[in-house]
Amino acid sequence: MQISIKGGINVAKERVVYGFVRRKIELLDEETAWSRGMLAKLRRGIGKQPGAVPDIWEITLADAPEEWHSNKYGTASSAELAVHTALTLYALHRQGKLRSMSISGKTEDGKSAGDSFGAAAARLVQPDGSNLNAIKRRFDAVATAAEFTELSRHARGIVQLLKAADQPMDYPQFADDLYIFQIPGYDDGIRLRWGEDFYRTLKVTDGKEDEAK
Question: Strand, helix or coil at 125?
Fold first, then answer.
């Protein structure tokens, strides 16, 4: 998969983070005593640094590539931050749900099987558009975040709305996006794609409403 960045350059996306998070979510969705306990532990890690909650390392760090490890000062890597943020927010989204809140993979025509962050946010808009401005304000707060900590804090608000609406999201893709967002010069490419997905999904919804009328 490719994204456009500054200067019109197309760059192949790393899929390592995507595959890692997808495997971890499959474990969390097994509905075992371990998975339920781990989801609860992950929720306690929301908004914290990857090194702050040792109880979740067996899911966030186990089997991670060595190149993801922190530097000599103990600063978490971009991959560790992306994985930690995606899995802790997934645990929030999954709380009280009897089914997975993550849809990932590809359909037969090669398209994503689940909604990206932007598309999922757009599906929160009511058919009559009554909450459009409120959703757009929350979405724009994520998209305009200047740095990763601010972005993850605002993303939590969207995830809470998705949870309330029982609306799933492609969390492996979200983790991949969070990873790429931290690479200098790539953040605007992620913002752009989220915006495209938001308005494309919103337009499709509006079109269906018009047809129904």
Answer: coil
User: Is the pTM of the predicted complex or chain greater than 0.70?
Assistant: yes
Question: Which of 76, 88, 68 has its CA nearest to residue 156?
Answer: 88
What is the C-alpha to C-alpha distance for residues 111 and 184, in angstroms, rounded to an integer?
A: 27
∠ CA 59-60-65, nearest 5°, is: 110
Q: How far apart are CA 197 and CA 193, in angstroms?
A: 6
Rounded to whole angstroms, how far apart are CA atoms 76 and 87?
Answer: 15
Q: How many helices (H) and strands (E) does the chain have?
A: 9, 2
Domains, the chain, ordered by start = 14-212 (1.10.520.40)
> At how many degrees (to 10) do helices 148-165 and 132-143 cross?
150
DSSP-assigned letters across all residues of 159-172: HHHHHHHT--B-HH
Tokens standing for 18? 């995507």
> If you compute the radius of gyration of the chain from its CA atoms, what whole number of angstroms results?
17
| 3 SS3 class | strand
Inter-axis angle of helices 33-43 and 78-94, nearest 10 = 110
- pLDDT tens figures, 6-39: 333 333 435 789 999 999 999 999 999 999 999 9
Which residues, in sequence order, are bridge partners of residue 169? Answer: 102
Give tens-digit pLDDT for 58-114: 999 999 998 899 887 788 999 999 999 999 999 999 999 989 999 876 655 555 667
**Which tokens go with 118?**
């932007």
